[in-house]
Amino acid sequence: MRILITGATHGMGKGVARALASHPKLELVLLGRSEELLRETAEELRQHAAGPSVSVVRCDLARMQEVRVAIAELRKLPGLDAIFVNAGIGYAAEHQQTEDGFDAHFQVNYLSQFMLTLNLLDRLEASSHGGRVLFNAPAFGDLRWNDLQLEKEWNYELAIGQAMVAKRMLATHLHTLYQARGEPRVSCYSFEISKTVWSNQLNLIPRSMRLLATVMRALGQFISIDECGAIMAPLFLENRQECAQKSGRLVTLRRGKLYDREKHPGVLDSATREQLWNVSLALCADEATTRAAQRLTTR
Fold this sequence. Notes:
alpha/beta
């Protein structure tokens, strides 16, 4: 089973990779923007007792051209069974625009991974294990339809939240499209960790926020990336039927039980999801991505 993990060198992505490394029959593909960190992470995983097969793909999601190159490289793989759509920017002190002209959070956390996912769906459909796309997308955020790039008003929380709700809309829309085709060969759903994960992002926040986070951690409000990995890794190992039961949902795990979390009207409304789908395709302005989308909508 081959699993692609975006944002694999830090935080939740690295925690999931570590947990999956205990399964020797898995093949892990790590995607990240730093060649050095990718090599270090891959070597760390290879030294695990199980010795998983690990390969790396360098890609800066803030550059659409690099996403296209990464897609071409990933499509050369013999097969693909799962994608963990996880990479993202967290705290930022100021608004940043990418060279493609997008809000950095919107592009890295959502739009580039929209393109990546659509261009790999046909590979997931061929999976004998049941292809799946698992989105790290907790239950918060709103879309600013009149200001998607947050040029009029910006703070990092608005930017993160907008990307999170966009990812959940994508997961639900993909599920709906596969249902309409009558062949749900790829399960697509979102997952929310019930506690905040203590990661490298906390080294980037202002001192006052870091002190507060340290207190919260002492009170048990945070979990480590390895605890996060232990919670999420089983989701990638489920059989086709177990995974299909979650498709189209936003779920979280608490005390061993699965709960539905989606209440956002935009995610639940098909017309709104379709609107974001069309806007995203227009923003990508990529022929291969448009063809991938048309394949899904043509029955």
